[in-house]
Amino acid sequence: MAANVPEPSRLLSVQSHVVSGYVGNRSATFPLQLLGWDVDVINTVQFSNHTGYGRWKGLRFDDSHISSLFQGLEENGLLKQSRMLSGYMPSPSVVQAVLEAVERIREVNPELIYLCDPVMGDMGRGMYVDKEVLPVYRSMLRYTTIITPNQFEAQILADEEITSIPSLLSVLQSLHTQGANHVLITSVSLSDTDILKIGATPSSEPSMVLVGSSRPSTDTPLKPWFIQFPEVRGYFSGVGDLFAAMTLGRFQNLTAQDVEAETSVTPIARAAELAVAVVQAVLAKTQKSMDALEQEVTEGSSGDDAQARVDRMRGRELKIIQSKREIENPEVAYQAKFFKETSG
Amino acid sequence: MAANVPEPSRLLSVQSHVVSGYVGNRSATFPLQLLGWDVDVINTVQFSNHTGYGRWKGLRFDDSHISSLFQGLEENGLLKQSRMLSGYMPSPSVVQAVLEAVERIREVNPELIYLCDPVMGDMGRGMYVDKEVLPVYRSMLRYTTIITPNQFEAQILADEEITSIPSLLSVLQSLHTQGANHVLITSVSLSDTDILKIGATPSSEPSMVLVGSSRPSTDTPLKPWFIQFPEVRGYFSGVGDLFAAMTLGRFQNLTAQDVEAETSVTPIARAAELAVAVVQAVLAKTQKSMDALEQEVTEGSSGDDAQARVDRMRGRELKIIQSKREIENPEVAYQAKFFKETSG
Q1: Cβ–Cβ of A68/B48 closer than 8 Å?
Q2: Could you tell me which residues come within 8 angstroms of residue A62 by beta carbon, excluding any fewer than 6 positions away?
Q3: Partner A, chain B 153-172, Cβ-Cβ below 8 Å
Q4: Domain Pyridoxamine kinase/Phosphomethylpyrimidine kinase spans what residues (chains A, B) (predicted)?
Q5: Which residues pair with A165 in a beta bridge?
Q6: How many CB atoms lie within 10 A of CB A131?
Q7: Does the distance separating the beta carbons of A26 and B41 come in below 8 Å?
């Protein structure tokens, strides 16, 4: 076994672990394994359940533990993954440790495909991790193949608000300039006028617009694309983790059927279409079981608010295990389209 | 959601975690998830790779971390698993913490099916964990539905050597008397005479005899059974973990096809037949890839003994991910048979 040859089916995922429920590595690993990936799993925390329950126990691991795991892999010549995924990391020093590991894996394998999901906050809650992670994530961008921020994270990485098509393009361009080959902003809020301009459909129902672009090879302008899909009502945890995992798992790893068919606008857009299809299928299954459960919760209400919150969270755990077939064979209902207009 | 109703498809697995490779929870979780189990996963260690590599990094978790995870689950009403599996635990105090958790889960669910794999040692190496775990595992027996010791572990739990059919029966009986409903001794070494007496076939090729029995309901004698199957040459890690997981995952959880067919001598024997079939399929796939790899290792030999050991271990990692179909649909080639004679 040549020591420096990357293993084509090996993927490293660095995220949180919960004993019960599906966020972080628990949301990413099984679906990636179903697609045939030998997933190496570094857990950045071990909690009983995700923090949305309000009550949880467990440990956040520090950078010395995480670094030692990378060191153990390196000493054994096991840092030969062809792909890498990172999600929630509990401190700036852990993000820094992962950054150093990405540098080393890239030395072994310059072709490493690294997807960085820069988990920092969202539009509703703002920043929910230590703000010191921001400069570390900015440094990470130069090693990043695919970045999957939400609108809030894209804005703070680019240090610019998205209020229009020109500012959206400017944010995409900034992330490319900082180093990301492919940018997927997982949810962008646009005015009805701008929705029409890019070629999407204004709707009275809540809908999500995912926007993506790849770094142009020369001085040609960006060719952004979008996928519009209906928002599944309710709050779910682990959705972004599942989307990121499925995007990385499917990128340039398409079925023969995909290649034969005239698929999508770009390879990364095709991966995103498949990932959206998986997420939508899992959410549909989750919501169905949730509706049945919330009925029960209401009927059996104990008047204990904390327990009611727990029961609600429990019902909203993604039905990942039950969606095996949909993960293996997603049906794409929402397709990527290039922006119709890119001028404001 | 009634707080005390166990969830029929939920299974808790308490074992080790390695970042890369397939032992402990890494060997058990994906196969159980493929069978549809919502697996709650408590990791007792986080190592870069298994210790057989000679070099590894990481942490063994202490009983306070493991107990806090159980506490977090309990506070949220999440200790409602219908099944539980335990494997390697890094210290007697962790085994004690798990014992206390099993007691609490049994209070919620007296029907809990708990498989205890009492990882302590083997015939080749003797005891390889702190000997203080032995009394704790003995206390665990009264909560145990299924126990899967190897010959060494069965002998020390029963405090009797297996040298004949009567001593084998005496060991089985001792484990039942101490509390285990079903005993599976995963490998028993018998003389050719005894092999013939139980109804197995002496062979010049190395073969394994797995022996099982269920606690008789009254004073009726034990009806032990065996499965004889060829030994796959070479040393593999995580095989026992895979066997235990598949036995628990399939027990009383058979397909409609199984129920229609006149299957096996007892339900636990049927589960063991299916588990053996999975293990044999995974080992066959592993050995095929290993043979190819060892060829390469020999050719590219660097003269570094430590690295050669690592390369050998790497090649012997179970091909679990690649055996998805065989795990879902195992073909039983080796069937359980009742002992022909139970007298010495």
Answers
A1: yes
A2: A91, A93, A94
A3: none
A4: 90-191
A5: none
A6: 11
A7: yes
Please say whether the dihedral angle defined by the alpha carbons of residues B268, B270, B271 and B276, taken in this order, is positive or negative: positive
pLDDT band at B231 (very low <50, low <70, confident <90, very high): confident
As for the ipTM of the complex, it is: 0.94
Q: Is the Cβ of B300 closer than 8 Å to some Cβ of chain A?
A: yes
Lowest mean pLDDT among A116-125, B36-45, B247-256: B247-256
Q: What is the pLDDT of residues A23-33, one digit of tens each?
A: 999 999 999 99
Active site residue A117: no
Digit-coded pLDDT (tens) for B113-170: 999 999 999 988 999 999 999 999 999 999 999 999 999 999 999 999 999 999 999 9
3-state secondary structure A118-185: CCCEECCCEECCCCCHHHHHHHHHHHCCEECCCHHHHHHHHCCCCCCHHHHHHHHHHHHHHCCCEEEE
Rounded CA separation B249/B125 (Å): 29
Contact across the interface for B76 and A69, Cβ inside 8 Å? no
Taking alpha carbons only, the member of A310, A311, A336, A298 closest to residue A213 is: A336
Chain A residue with minimal CA distance to B309? A76
Query: How many contacts, defined by CB atoms under 8 Å, are there between A and B?
Result: 157
Across the interface, whether the CB atoms of A1 and B324 are under 8 A apart is answered: no
Task: Name every chain B residue with its beta carbon within 8 A of the beta carbon of A33.
Answer: 30, 321
Let me know: does A211 contact A168? Beta carbons within 8 Å.
yes
Q: Distance (Å) from the C-alpha of residue B223 to the closest C-alpha of chain A?
A: 37
The rounded distance, in Å, linking the Cα atoms of B249 and B83 is 9
What is the residue type of A32? Answer: L
Q: Which of A63, A117, A241, A311 is catalytic?
A: A241
**Surface of A (44-83) touching B: CB under 8 A:** 46-49, 53, 55-59, 61, 65, 68-73, 75-78
* Two structure tokens written together for B120: 């302590």
- For residue A308, give the amino acid letter: A
B282 closest CA partner among B225, B226, B240: B240
Nearest beta carbon to residue A46 from set B20, B43, B324? B43
Listed by number, the residues of chain A in 314-343 with a beta carbon closer than 8 Å to a beta carbon of chain B are: 314-315, 321-322, 324
End-to-end CA gap in chain B: 55
The token pair at B194 is 């005894």
Nearest CA in chain A to B318: A38
CA distance A68 to chain B (A): 6
What is the pLDDT at residue A171? 98
Residue of B nearest to A32 (CA): B321
Average pLDDT of chain A?
91
Neighbour tally for B100: CB within 10 Å: 11
Band of pLDDT at residue A296, cut at 50, 70 and 90: low
How far apart are alpha carbons A35 and A247 in whole angstroms?
Answer: 12
* CA dist list (Å): B232 to A51, B185, B311: 45, 18, 19
The CATH code that applies to domain A7-338 is 3.40.1190.20
Q: What would you measure as the largest C-alpha separation in chain B, in angstroms? A: 63
